[in-house]
Queue: 2 jobs
Job 1
Amino acid sequence: MAQQFAPMPDENGYFGEYGGQVLPPELKQIMDDIDRAYEEIIRSEDFRQELALLQSDYTGRPSPIYHARRLSEHLGGAQIHLKREDLNHTGAHKINHCLGEALLARYMGKTKVLAETGAGQHGVALATACALVGIDCEIHMGQVDIEKEHPNVTKMKILGCKLVPVTRGTATLKDAVDSAFEEYLKDPQHFFYAIGSVVGPHPFPKMVRDFQSIVGREAREQFLERHGQLPDLITACVGGGSNAIGLFTAFLEDESVRIVGVEPAGLGLDTPQHAATLTLGSKGAIHGFECYNLQDDQGNPLPVYSIASGLDYPGVGPQHCYLKDIQRVDYETATDQECLDAFMTLSRMEGIIPALESAHAVAYAMRIAPAMQPDQHILVNLSGRGDKDADFVAEKLKL
Ligand SMILES: *Cc1c(COP(=O)(O)O)cnc(C)c1O
């Protein structure tokens, strides 16, 4: 099995038939420069030491694994354990790759880091990393999202990034992507476009995976140390797929470990209101790479929806597409309703309020645990905390 994963991606950035660089030649050149710089720094002892120190003293790594005893007992089946990425500085796994990207941008002598943000999670993590590293940061955000996501907007301002409101189109995420990308194209030699998941052209799916893979490396070691065995099943939610691949990578060659990614089924897979890209999508190109897509007959991205705004993307990381095709990872779904139930259950049984994104993975664990034995173990990547979602859920459930 080792053979299947070792050289991923190949030198052209492909995971099987997914990934690559669907870009004009000038931009390919720039992406290849980024790849070269990345391969250089990850081999440099100075960089490794700087990143390791930030991971421990700044982010607070290693994040613990917590055995959710009350929840497990309540469900009456397998033991559920949580990898606590919610305890990281800034409250989610995103800081893991944002630190890496900001350090790389500084190493390459870039003058400005650019990105779009939807709900503001990527924006806040990136603005944090840029403040720390001392590099200018510019975040493009739809006006509609700016009005909805007040706390994150305020944080980005305090952190010193330049926030660019986008009023064109529907003034949401897709328009913010277009706007940020236009700004990037003005000077790609000097600007760095920091992609927020394992998506986009090569080398981003590889780089973001590598920066996130610390999650699985820690978890595998922690679990072995504590329980003397590996978990029977590991699971994580999949939007673009960064927290999932971060957990999965260290376990891919452990044949006894079942691996499950959980996509948002929104209002139901029989409605257009979901973002279950791997479950219902077809192969196509989006934002500079090839992957499963939710697209119309002409290959245009379909509008997607999830109660968790971090999961509503019509494409998905190319490595997940490959892992689905070779059947190493299974992809399941959870609806908005299951997500809300898991959100409330985890909060009230364990005193842990999860992000709505992470609650999709908790929902799947809650569904499968009763069908497993009490001496079996499920490890869930709790990708983030739910502070950002608390008001929304309280209003929705009329608490
Ligand atoms: C952004 C986000 C996600 C979704 O992104 P992935 O790249 O699929 O991990 C999941 N959980 C949290 C808490 C997030 O902020």
Job 2
Amino acid sequence: MERSLTDKRFFDIEENYKELSSGIAEAAIKCGRDPQEVRFMAVTKTVEPIYINHALSLGLDLIGENRVQEFMSKRDELNLAGVEKHLIGHLQTNKVKQIVGNVDFIDGVDSLKVAKEIGKASLKAGISTDILLEINIGGEESKFGFTPESIGETVCEIAEIEGVRVRGLMAIPPICDDSVKNRIFFENMHRLFIDIGAKKIHNVSMDILSMGMSGDYQDAVACGSTMVRIGSALFGARNYR
Ligand SMILES: *Cc1c(COP(=O)(O)O)cnc(C)c1O
């Protein structure tokens, strides 16, 4: 019984992967973009290593975990050769030391303080850490991130920090099943991304615009996302958080 349930989940992940990969490509083509411009990140929070490894065996090469502890406890069991690893959740300053050097990117950088801490830990480790700056694009009180109004100034301050390289932006817009409303947030993000990139700030390159999740990735791709973060549509519903 248990065995067949397991098999079913493997099968589902495979089907979901195929469907999502073509969904992402179609969304790109529909708006005249090259599908290669959009990367598919598998969001692995709460997912057991055996299923993550199955997804990786299908060709995924990019994962995102939310929590430092969870990532560190799972990573030895993961087949991570050639896989780019991102921490995508809110990072507390006291956890920075544990994660620097263990992931390729820290995506949810949402304060000057945490950026400085990442810089410090990176210098100590003799490395430079790639980061994305999180924007609270919906202006929600419950969410972390820089305001769209403040980011222009803040990005210059972060650019001065040794040990970090700003590589782009990420956002989690308000949850909404209205495609028109979703697109307003995504378009605003895209504008910020272009505007900051155009400033050609030293140590800042706008390579990655991480936006779009299971429910809204098509809209995000239509508005210029270069990285969609997909959890439940790939692995199935999470049963906590
Ligand atoms: C959980 C999570 C996702 C994936 O959400 P789904 O709706 O399951 O695709 C994407 N980004 C972040 C930051 C998350 O925490």
